[in-house]
Amino acid sequence: MSRLMEVADRMGIDRVVLSMGLPPLITNPTPDQLRQKNDETMAALLHWHHRAFGLCYVSGEHVEASLQEIDRCVAKGSLVGIKLWVAKRCNSPEVETLVKRVHELRGLIVQHAWHKTGGNPPGESTPEDMAELAARVPEIPLVCYHTGGNWEGGIRALRPYKNVYAEVAGPTPTAGFVEMAVRELGAERIVYGSDAAGRSFASQIGKVLGAQIPEAAKELIASGNLRRLLTPILKAKGMEV
């Protein structure tokens, strides 16, 4: 954490959001592994609550264990939402159950989504899966990590669903990604992310700072939108917004 925040300081990043614990990352964790990863995330926050937030790693493959982790780590602990990765596609009833529970707690809901050129493995969500979930829970804000990797297709899939936010970390920082997202979704539906340490802070924030969009839009993407999404649970926990 000290090294991470040292780099964040160099890049002008005030706050970070952590999830999934220490390497190695586990795509289909057991209940015990979920607990271990969440313990690692909470340990990383111990001396950094003024600058870092954490998400509870859960899995649609283990609904009861994940509900217990949400209760332990979000309802009663320091974490402020959930991170869903690739064990179970997000259009499944199991994932919807987890999403609804976190929404009751006013927590942040983040789902990895990707389009693999050679086809996704069975448990990996696509933006189309997120669109299906969003249509079933229109009252619940959802964050689509990576906008599907293939961001042109991802933006189109997410466009009709006003409760979905496109997060712009992950794909190679090609020109035009953020501009298209602003044009098609509106700046108020886009969230900056770094995907650190898989990607660098610099390459990912460069997509936002270098985009040909108004300064007000950059401010929303860099901080305003995530602040708005986190405000309900931070207020409920008595934490600084």
Task: Give your account of this protein's structure.
With 241 residues, the protein is an alpha/beta fold. It has one domain: TIM Barrel (Alpha-Beta Barrel). The protein has nine helices and eight strands. It has helices at 2-10, 31-45, 63-75, 93-104, 127-136, 151-158, 177-185, 201-209, 215-237, and strands at residues 16-18, 52-54, 56-58, 81-84, 108-114, 142-148, 164-167, 190-191. It has a six-stranded parallel sheet with strand order 3-4-5-6-7-8, with helices on both faces. Helix 2 links the parallel strand 1 and strand 2. Helix 2 (31-45) packs parallel to helix 3, helix 3 packs parallel to helix 4 and helix 5 (127-136) runs parallel beside helix 6 (151-158). The model has no long low-confidence stretch (mean pLDDT 95).
Characteristic key phrases:
six-stranded parallel beta sheet, about 240 residues, alpha/beta, 9 helices, two-stranded parallel ribbon, TIM Barrel, about 45% helix, 8 strands
List the secondary-structure elements in sequence, H or E: HEHEEHEHEHEHEHEHH
- Number of contiguous helices: 9
Radius of gyration, Cα only, in angstroms? 16 Å
Number of strands: 8
Low-confidence stretches: none
Residue share in helix? 40-55%
**Main sheet attributes: strand count, strand direction, barrel closure:** 6 strands, parallel
Layout: helices, strands, pairs:
Blueprint: H1 2-10, E1 16-18, H2 31-45, E2 52-54, E3 56-58, H3 63-75, E4 81-84, H4 93-104, E5 108-114, H5 127-136, E6 142-148, H6 151-158, E7 164-167, H7 177-185, E8 190-191, H8 201-209, H9 215-237
Parallel strand pairs: 1-2, 3-4, 4-5, 5-6, 6-7, 7-8
Helix pairs in contact: 2-3, 3-4, 5-6, 6-7
